Amino acid sequence: MAKNIKKKKRLRLKISKITILIFLLDLLVVDGLILINNDNFKAFWIPTAMTTMKHKYLAYTLYDEDTVNKVMSENYIEKVNEDVNLDDIVIGGDKKRKITSKFEKELFTQDEGNSVYKTIRINESKYKGWLIGIYDPADVELAVSSKLGKAGQSVNTLVKNNKGLVGINGGGFEDLDGWGNGSIPYGAIIKDGKLIWNHSGGSGGLIGFTKDHKMYLTSKSPAEAIKDGMDEAVDFGPFLIVNGKVSKIHGDGGWGTAPRSVIAQRKDGVVLFLIIEGRLPGYSTGATMNDVIEILLRYKAYNAANLDGGASSTMSVEGKLWNRPSAGAEYGGRTVSNAWIVTNKNNKPAKAPIKNNYK
Questions:
Q1: Closest CA to 196 of 141, 155, 230, 148
Q2: pLDDT value at residue 53
Q3: Which of 90, 113, 203, 240 is most enclosed, with most CB atoms within 10 A?
Q4: Distance CA 309, CA 314 (A)
Q5: Nearest one of 100, 87, 347, 358 to 243, comparing CA atoms
Q6: Per-residue pLDDT at 25
Q7: By CB neighbour count within 10 A (0-12 exposed, 13-18 middle, 19+ buried), where does 27 fall?
Q8: Which residues neighbour 199 within 8 Å (Cβ) at sequence distance 6 or greater?
Q9: How far is CA 148 from CA 49, 205, 231, 346, in A?
Q10: What is the rounded distance in angstroms from the CA atom of residue 243 to the CA atom of residue 307?
């Protein structure tokens, strides 16, 4: 009799556990269905998946082709439809500069013993990253892989090989199935006023600097850009800020939430390198185009353009990998075709900052 009572109790307990488990599974299914049918989730999930190289299938795992196409058509960028006005950039006007915000104060409070650049931590609730302000735009130049056409090189290597101090990745490259090694850059590369590479696949336009170190963004052909004075450039985009005017981002612009690399210039000539870390759960999810525009406006960017992002987003400081890339950290970051680097042409004091330790 006692044994039968114990068996019944164990059976009831087992049934109750199964019932609870089924209830929880049903709850997860219901919540999942609610979530995937949520417009905000669709607008996050689909563009984020579609802007990756290897994981576009994730968009189609949850949604049909019509839904994917509809969401992508609602997320786009309305670019500023005007040419960069180079006359607006006045380099060397330091004496006339007025500090108008805590962000500018942060930018122009130099690190001890370093008058070349300033490292600034970006620490938001959903994403983290680094901004570097380069005081003299003449110190900014394009570094290109010495194995162009055969293999890329890490940003660290490109900085070291060109006697640089810091650097970020530049334009995109063929990345079939996410295994590209940076050997075949997309679009055009201009170096020292000459077209040294031209390949299909370029998007957005030419991003670079003129011979007098003013940032130039243009959709013109490489030949026309060189005629206009373009000295160094890569092919990517989109352009985010032109002549102080911001591109209008519909939804998330179709670029999702991801690691970002951005280059910009202020009206006083100061150049900004921005890296946003992403695809790192529990640490940094990544940023949208609107997120990076907001950061750039804090520091008064006047012209700005998006560079290759995702796993390629890499920042090097004094020969060290400075950010957490979403892939390749164990071997110093992904190999890329080119990088924007900072040299020290006038041998100004440039003491390296303390190691960041990802704090």
A1: 148
A2: 55
A3: 240
A4: 9
A5: 87
A6: 42
A7: exposed
A8: 184, 185, 186, 187, 188
A9: 29, 20, 19, 29
A10: 18
Q: Are 117 and 272 in contact (CB under 8 A)?
A: no
For the entire predicted model, the pTM comes to 0.84
Cα 251 to Cα 47, 72, 194, 286: the distances in Å are 10, 9, 38, 16
What number of other Cβ atoms are within 10 A of residue 91's Cβ? 17
DSSP letter assigned to residue 314? -
For 129, the token pair is 């990253």
Which two three-digit tokens encode residue 304? 């700005």
Task: Give the other-Cβ count within 10 Å of 79's Cβ.
Answer: 18
> Which pair of structure tokens corresponds to residue 191?
């170096």
Distance CA 128, CA 130 (A): 7
Q: Which of 303, 231, 294, 272 is nearest to 84 (CA)?
A: 303
Q: What DSSP element (H or E) covers 304?
A: strand 301-306
